[in-house]
C-alpha cells in the first residue's frame, strides 16, 4: 500500500447545476456576511451609544446591522452563484470545460 502509485484520471466539468451552485454561493455569502456583520456591528455600537446615550439602542443597532449583513450576504451570494453557473454553462459550449484530475483509490 505505501509507495504504491495512484492512478489519476482527467475529467471535464461540462455543466454546473445553476441551483446547486447558487446554494453554494449563498453559503459562501452567509459566511462573508457573518464576518462583515461582526466587523460593522462592532463599529456601529460605539457611535450609536454616543449619539443616544443608550447602551440598549447601541447594542440593538449592532444586532440589526449584523442580521442585515448576513441576510444580504445570503441573497447576493445566491444570485451571484446562479449568475456564475449560468455564464459558465453558456461559455463551456465554446471550450472543453474545466479539467479536473481525480485520484482513484481502492
From TrEMBL:
Keywords: Membrane, Transmembrane, Transmembrane helix. The chain crosses the membrane at residues 21-46, 66-88. This is DUF3566 domain-containing protein.
Amino acid at each position: 500500500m505505501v509507495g504504491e502509485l495512484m492512478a489519476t484520471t482527467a475529467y471535464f466539468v461540462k455543466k454546473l447545476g445553476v441551483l446547486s451552485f447558487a446554494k453554494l454561493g449563498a453559503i459562501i455569502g452567509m459566511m462573508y456576511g457573518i464576518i462583515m456583520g461582526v466587523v460593522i456591528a462592532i463599529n456601529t455600537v460605539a457611535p450609536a451609544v454616543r449619539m443616544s446615550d443608550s447602551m440598549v439602542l447601541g447594542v440593538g443597532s449592532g444586532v440589526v446591522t449584523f442580521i442585515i449583513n448576513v441576510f444580504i450576504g445570503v441573497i447576493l451570494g445566491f444570485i451571484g452563484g446562479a449568475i456564475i453557473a449560468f455564464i459558465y454553462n453558456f461559455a463551456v459550449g465554446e471550450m472543453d470545460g474545466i479539467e479536473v484530475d481525480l485520484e482513484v483509490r481502492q
